[in-house]
Amino acid sequence: MGTMSRAFVKDTDADAVEDLPDRPISEHPNDVTAEGLAQIEASLAAAQAALGAAQGVGDRAAMAQASRDLRYWSARRATAHVVPVADDTTQVRFGGTVTIVRDDGREQTFRIVGEDEADPTKGTLSHASPLARALFGKTVGEVVQAGNGEAEIVAIGRRG
């Protein structure tokens, strides 16, 4: 084995800076609402536009970031499975809303959605979260584990 040429080492160092590690992709099924699919498609289009803009000005860092986002959103789009909203509101289901009252008296209403569209500050909860998994299939009046305490289901709705 000979020694590496200095030029080869420099190229490798430069590539290492530009290749960002891929965003982690969840191992959970990529269930989405219709709105979630639209969000994924918008993110995919934005990543494509950002890549085109970065290529246009030769911004390698922006190209690396946009390429990374494009790979992530392409994968999420390819695996997205739109789950129709069920009419049945007797049990907690994907895409539906659920209102819980926690031990401390706080009442919260969440819509259970896909991971990429979940934002608890906006009242949406990932279907893969421990709370959503505890709620699935339950009915009004049942008590589930919620964080370090418990919560009672007080209402189930069709949509947010």
- The strand count comes to 7
Give the helix proportion (percent range).
Answer: 25-40%
**Estimated radius of gyration:** 22 Å
Distance between the first and last residues' Cα: 64 Å
Strand fraction: 15-25%
Please, what is the average pLDDT? 88
Strand order within the widest sheet? 5-4-3-7-6
Structural class: alpha/beta
Shape descriptor reads elongated
Helix-strand string: HEHHEEEEHEE
Low-confidence stretches: 4-17
Number of domains: 2
How many helices? Answer: 4
The major beta sheet can be summarized as: 5 strands, mixed
Provide structural commentary.
The protein is of the alpha/beta class and 160 residues long. It folds into two domains: 7-82; 97-157, Transcription elongation factor, GreA/GreB, C-terminal domain (Chitinase A, domain 3), CATH 3.10.50. The protein contains four helices and seven strands, in the order αβααββββαββ. The chain has helices at residues 6-18, 34-57, 60-79, 130-135, and strands at 31-32, 81-82, 97-102, 107-113, 124-126, 143-146, 149-157. It has a five-stranded mixed beta sheet with strand order 5-4-3-7-6. The protein has a two-stranded parallel sheet with strand order 1-2. Strand 3 (97-102) and strand 4 form a beta hairpin. Helix 2 runs antiparallel to helix 3. The termini are far apart.
